[in-house]
Amino acid sequence: MSTALTVEGMSCGHCEQTVEEAIEALDGVKDAEADRDAEQVSVDGDVSTEQLIAAVEDAGYDART
Questions:
Q1: Helix, strand or coil for residue 41?
Q2: Rounded distance, CA 54 to CA 27, Å?
Q3: What is the pTM of this model?
Q4: Could you tell me the mean pLDDT of each successive run of 10 residues in the chain, 65 residues long?
């Protein structure tokens, strides 16, 4: 399953890495790719949208579908 979220607050490569690592730490996630310019993260895996949003928010960023 592939999911895309809008993520606000990423301003640099480190921000992208932080978001990717937060999501990839979830069980069931195969891959995550954040793009600060597009303000999005794409996720491959079997994880609920609620879990993804919570992981991004726990990392300090705003997320929504």
A1: strand
A2: 14
A3: 0.96
A4: 96 98 98 98 97 98 97
